[in-house]
Amino acid sequence: MKKRFFLKNLAVFLLPIMVPMILLGSLSIAVLQSYIKNEISSSHIRQLKQTKEHLELMLNEMDSLILTLDNHSKINNVLGNLLENELPKYEDIVPGEMLQAFLNAPANARPYIHSIYVYYRNDHGLFVSSNVGVANLNSYWDTGWYDDYRNHDGKAEIWTEPRNIKQYSFEKDEKRIVTVYRKLHTRDGMIALNLSRDYIEDILRSLAVSSEQCVLVFNEKGQLLFSSSMPDDLKQMPIVQAQEDHAKESLLALQSHSDSFIVNQVNSNRYGWEYFSIVPKKSLFRVPTQLSTATLLLLLVSLVVSMLLAYYFTSLNYNRLSSMMSIIDSAVRGKPLPPLPVTIKDEYGYILHNILTTFIEQNYLKVQLSEQKYRLQAAKLLALQSQINPHFLYNTLNAIYWEVFKLTAKPNQGTEMIENLSYILDYSLSSPAQTVTLQEEIDHTQSYIRIQKFRHKDKFEVIWKGNHEEIQHFKIVKLLLQPLVENSIYHGIKETTTRVVIRIKIMLRGNRLRISVTDNGMGIEKDRLAEIRRLLSEGCESPGHIGLFNTNIRLKLSYGEPYGIAIKSKHGFGTLISFDIPVAAAPHYSFPLYCQQEED
Length: 600
Description:
600 residues, alpha+beta, six-stranded antiparallel beta sheet, five-stranded antiparallel beta sheet, 16 helices, 19% strand, disordered C terminus, membrane, ATP-binding
């Protein structure tokens, strides 16, 4: 008891001190982190877009080559003649030298271009290189590009491969290049543009926002093409896959063995390249981290001070409060209460005097409130049920029935409709508080459906399903099923021109009876459905669904708060309305429940 009282006092001292501090510190950290994240995302996305534009500007060199080699018929024929003849003809030598000069010009003028290869399919393994002119695959030192071209699936027009090449055997290090392939359409062939990885990576480093930033470029296969730098922790991490799994996030945090990284991404639709900016998280969130540490230290100091104050006041007031709690406990258990204090010396005496003088009055008021709540519930139930059907129509319908009968001197469609309506009114008005069997409720609903059939002709049909023989004599509150069927008919036929199918399913599940009404009408829009569900949960009413909300309220009043209506709907597909009611075992009878498919 004393421990609990101490904790309460501790909370009293802690809340005024710590809550503002926690809120202020959390808000400051959150705002600062949000600002940093937005700034990081914006600046890095801009930098990645600038890098993308810069690299694609380099790759535009391919477009001029395509326009010349694929669309210029004379150059196309000269190149084709050079490659189709194992030994060049005299008249092709000069054009061939001009073609080599044309390819060699961008390779020499652009430091990021290592070489350019042009290949048309031929029987001699010949191709044109910007370095040597016409070359043979059987003797040329770089043929890896041809293997990549031959093994390509043939669907993509442009694709990229990172390669390492070595022209001479005595070279220690291989040259790192990226080959961009592009198909030629006039003839069966392609252009291979070889880019220097070292030169482009120097450009990436010059464009980096900070020295700790790492810029990576991957091709459509997830192969690394260029990197400004690559920390050892990132080499084993699936960066591309991780970013795909979080495609909806502007920032992605990657965790390695020793550090966390913030990742941004930009995609190139034309070449299928993915550009990543990776920055160590600790370098970006250094200020929020320091602010969080300071906040935690202040909270710790506040906790210590609050504990000392709480201990002091707990020791001071515990005995008086313990005496008061003992008196309250005696009053609750019906034990004799101590006499009222003669004089009131302090606030504790005042509280004790008021507790003793008002305890009996409070108990009496609770009993009265409980009785009034019960009467209000019963009155509300009767009022809701009487709201459904006006009483004066019943006697009037009997007179109308005989007048219609006189017109034809025999039963007709009109008398049949009046009979069904009279049965519905009699069922609704007789003993509104009583329960009925499930079979009686279904018979009543069948009469309502027959009337609607006369009115709406073939615009809807009703299908019944359920394990009926077991549950036909279960007692339920009347007028639960018909309002739901009315809701499906009214809103289904109103908003669609197709034939509406209404399925009524009644099943026994354990100790509960599940009743559901499904239709294939237009359904309910998402916002309207959310509003209806909110009103149902709050026990309110809606002008557009009086029967639905009335039934929901009567279910809750009759069986308790958990037994309300559940509604599911999708606009354009239909609506499902269902509810459960508790049942008890009922005697078994031999004749079956009337639940069959309604005839058209």
